[in-house]
Automatic annotation (TrEMBL):
Originating species: Brachybacterium sacelli
Listed name of the protein: Xaa-Pro dipeptidase
Every Peptidase M24 domain range: 161-369
Keywords recorded for this protein, A-Z: Dipeptidase, Hydrolase, Protease
Pfam families: Creatinase_N, Peptidase_M24
NCBIfam families: ectoine_DoeA_2 (NF038259)
Cross-referenced InterPro entries: Creatin/AminoP/Spt16_N (IPR029149), Creatinase/aminopeptidase-like (IPR036005), Creatinase_N (IPR000587), Pept_M24 (IPR000994), Peptidase_M24B (IPR050659)
Record bears the keyword Cell membrane: no
Keyword Protease appears in the UniProt entry: yes
GO molecular function, one term: proline dipeptidase activity
Creatinase N-terminal domain segment(s): 17-151
Enzyme class: hydrolase
EC id: 3.4.13.9
Amino acid sequence: MRRREDMTFPPGEYERRLRELRERMAGRELDAVIITDPENLMYLTDHQTTGYSFFQALIVPLEAEPMMITRAMEQSNVLERTWVESSRAYPDTGDAILDLVSSLRDLRLGDARVGYERNSYYFPAYQQDRFHDAFGEGLVDCFGIVEEGRILKSAAEISVMRRAAHAAEAGMRAGQEAAVVGATENDVAAAISSAMFRAGGEFPAVMPYVASGPRTMIGHSTWEGRTIEPGEHVFLELGGCYRRYHAAVMRTVVNGELSPSMHSAQELMKHALAELRGLMRPGVTVAEVDRLVRSVIESNDVGARLVTRAGYSIGIAFPPSWDEGYILSLMDGDDRPLEPGMTFHVIPWMWGVDGDKTVGISDTLHVTEEGCESLFTLGEDFTVHDGRMPGPVTDLNARAS
């Protein structure tokens, strides 16, 4: 396997991933698989591009060398940034699906048992229908066959996620400092983004969530130019990114006095995180983690609720989402045990404090052999500013004249 200068990991990491994928293929009696999910392509080959809305696929035979099918514009990414030696590019006027079928036949897989990712965002139904019509029998849904490897991060992947966490932490500190009375949500978002990118971060799968005052009660709302008023709080959530690996974190800023209900919410979320760090270790089930978070948050006396899952797997991501929740989410009813190498964004956040405030403190945790560890060093208490409206700016030049 060749090593490109710009690849994220050494060849041995990709050789292991490919070998383990083929072991799962053999277990499912598949002669080849067609991988179209951008995250899975990145995981297997280091291939990344913002042009993934055009069809792209990696054919992985059980024994022969893999082949990439991609738009001609994107072929340079395959040649310059991945270990893949064989690729077939189609022009914008071409037919990607017919090229895929032709490539399978060239690889003598025309009568083979071939798996494809039926649930991939970027292999839409109309293309799948055309693929079935052109290829014929032998197609099998193999959704999840790559994700089975992605769920457990290697030491090399954890190292990259730490770099993502470093960028996220820099962005969050900047956001906490910027979220003051008189600033706009745009000001805060700009401060976060600048700090993340200056700290080595790359464009995340989702840009930061910045919501102030009553807008915090709107799910997934982010900056819209609103000015932060005295007495208002600001909800911040962001994911730092490095080489498409993410680490996410929530924090809350208060402008003015920390009310008893907001203090109670802060302490309850901190308690939930402390309990999680004590509980999460190999062998504990996903359902147990969810029940712990839910029981702690639902014990609040400030009118808040946990309206979502308790957390989700996190790692490689492209827009539109930074999470791997479709692989594994922390929800009740799932008795899957935690394993070393799993990474989760745990979110014991609170919706509806006093009926009109959403607040959050979260963490990205890595399950180790002995327990779990945080990827962050950031303090958890709400950031409290004095909440006063800034005074008029003095024109020193005018005074001097």
